[in-house]
Predict the 3D structure of the following.
Amino acid sequence: MKNSILNYKTWLIIISLFSIQSIILTTPINAKKIPNGISILLDGDFPDPTIVKDGDNYYMTTSFGGFPSLMIWQSNDLLHWKRLDYALKTPVAGAVWAPELIKHDGTFYLYFPAGGHIYVMTATNPAGPWSNPQIIEGVSGIDPGHLVDKNGNRYLYIDNGRVVQLSSDGLSISGKETKVYDGWKFSNNYGVECFCLESPKMLYRNGYYYIISAQGGTGGPATSHMASVARSKSPFGPFEDSPYNPLIKTFSPFETWRSKGHATIFEGPKGQWYAIYHGYENGHLPMGRKTLLEPVVWTQDGWIKSGIKNTKKAKDYFFTENTRPKNDDFSSGTLNKQWTFTNANAYNNYKLQNKCLTIMCKQGNINGLMLPMCDKNFEVQFRIIPDQNVETGFVLYYDKNYYAGMILKNGIISGIHKNRQPFGDKISISDTSYFKLTILNYNVYISYSKDGKTWTSYPDAFDVSGYHTNILENFGSLKIAVIGDGNGKIQIDDFKYRTL
C-alpha cells in the first residue's frame, strides 16, 4: 500500500496489547446449548427487541434506523437467527420505535409508535406480506405492550402506566385510557437519567398479570436503564412491586454492559424462561444498543428473578454471525436483506441491473444504502461509479447531519467529518472507482484504487468515538453507508467486508 499510515498488522498488535477483551468479544461461538450468561443475539444497533413463539419457531423484531423497517427475524434455537423480511415498507410520519410483536387467534400483530401515534399492522405469516400500517385512533404514547386477559379481552398498555382496552380484532380501542401503575420507586443512589416509566410488557401466568417495565432512561449514565417487575390479579391493578427488583440493571459503570433494560419475558426451549432486552457494550456507545438474552427463573412465590447465579463471575457469550455483513456483488436480481436505506425516497428509487445497484438521488436529500456497524475493527470496500452531478460519500453514518469518511465529486476526493464539514486534502483521482474504509478502534482510514488491488492511502483520518447519543442525541448509531446528495444517481457494486 502506498503512503500507508501504519501497517495493518502493526495496528492489530497494538489493539491486541491494549484491548484483548475487545477482540475476544467479536469472536463467534458455535454453541448448541444456550449459555447460562448474557448472549448477544443481534450485534450492532438493534434496540427494543420483541419476541413471539409460534410452534417450534421464534420470531423477533427490533427498532432500527433506516427504511424499510421492522425486520422480522426467525430462529428455532434462540441463538441462530435469519432475516425473513421487513414488515414496514410504507413510510409513516416520525421515527419508528419500540414495537410489540404478538400472535392472537392465528394472526400476527405488530404495534409500534411513531410521531406520537400508535400504529398496527397484521399478517397471517410473519414473513409477510404485512398490511399497511394504520393509526389506532384515540391513543397516543410510546412502547405499546399487548395483553389478553383470562376472559379473552384485549388491552394495549403504553408508557407512564396507562392502559386502554382494544376491540376484539385489535385494530381500534373500545374504552377509555386508564392509568393503572405508577412504577417501581427505586433507590435515589441508582444513578439514573430520569424516572421514565416505559415499555410495559405484559404476561399472564397462574392467575397473575405481570407488568415488566423499563425505567431509569435509555441514555445518559451507564447505570440509567433497568427492567422492573410488578403483578396484579387484575389487568387494571393495583400492582404489587417485586421484592426481587430490579430484574435487569447495570449497577456499575465498569460492567461489560451499560444501560441494560427494555425487557420482554418469555418461555424458551425445554421450559426455560428468558429475558430479551437491549444494552450498550461498555466503551462502544457508537455501535448502539445490542439485542441481549439472559435466563430468568420463577420463584416458589411466583416472582421472576435473574437466572444467572453469580453475575460477577458469569461469562458473557457473544454471537456475532447473525448480523455480520456478507460480501455482495449485487448480481442476484434481489437485494440482500442485510441492506436498508437512509430514507423511503432512496428505497423507492433503487434498481438492480447489470450486476450493479443504482440509487437515484435528489438535491437536498441524503439518499443512500447502509447497514449497521457490528464489529469494532474491520475493513469495508465498494466499487463506486461516480456521477458528476452527485456528491457521493462513503462514510460511517450517524444521521443526515453527522457522518465521517470520504466524499467524491467531479473526480476530486476529500474527507468529511462532524457536522458535514469537509476536512483534509482535495485530491484528483480520475479513473478511480474502488474505495476502502479501515476502522480501527473508531479511527477511520480511507484508501482508494483504480483496480481494487493496488491501494493508495488518503492522508487524513478521523476519530468517530464521539458519534453516539450522549453527544449527538436521537439514539443513533454508526452505519456503513454510501450516500449521495444531488440530482443524479449513485452506482455501486463489489461490496467486500473483512473483520480485522
About this structure: Residues 8-18 form the longest helix (11 residues). The mean pLDDT is 92. The first strand starts at residue 38 and ends at 42. The radius of gyration is 23 Å.
